[in-house]
Amino acid sequence: MGIAALVLGIVAVVVGFIPGCGIFVAIPAAIVGLILGIIEIRKKSKAGQPKGKGTAAVILCAAAIVITIVVSIIAARKLADVGTELQDAADQMQRDMQEQMQDAQRQMQEQMDQQTPPEIPDTPAVPDDAPPAPATPPTPPATPPAE
User: Rounded to two decimals, what is the model's pTM?
Assistant: First the structure.
């Protein structure tokens, strides 16, 4: 049990430095290693044997738990900082885009103001001396066919 507790403690310490994985792998491994290490120390104490492996395992597992928690807190803070920076960058981009759109609208309006509208002649489309349109003769009513 002492060797298993040591192996779990070593794995927990190594994985504890990986943000995200530490919580799901390192802490459970460290807890199991801690329990096995305590059991190893109690067994060896009753038998009067050296308890070095159990003690080392308990220390490693406790250190792994502390390392995992510290690394997770640091990673969470960094992630929050990155999120804030991304939000600030997105806000700045949005402001820049709005300014560019306003500038473009202003430029388009200035160009439209500078252009002169095409001149529309004051003369009517049909000259006054044009002959009147011919009247169409009325069509006679249709007669029923004779039987």
Answer: 0.60
Tokens at 62, concatenated: 């406790």
User: What residue segments make up the domains of the chain, in order of their start?
Assistant: 2-111
70-73 contacts: CB < 8 A, separation 24 or more? 71/16, 71/17, 71/18, 71/19, 71/22, 72/19, 72/22, 72/23
CA separation for the pair 17, 52 (Å, rounded): 25
Length of the chain: 147
Tens-place pLDDT, residues 77-124: 998 888 888 898 999 999 999 999 999 999 998 888 888 766 766 665
Compute the radius of gyration of the chain from its Cα atoms.
45
Amino acid 143 reads: T
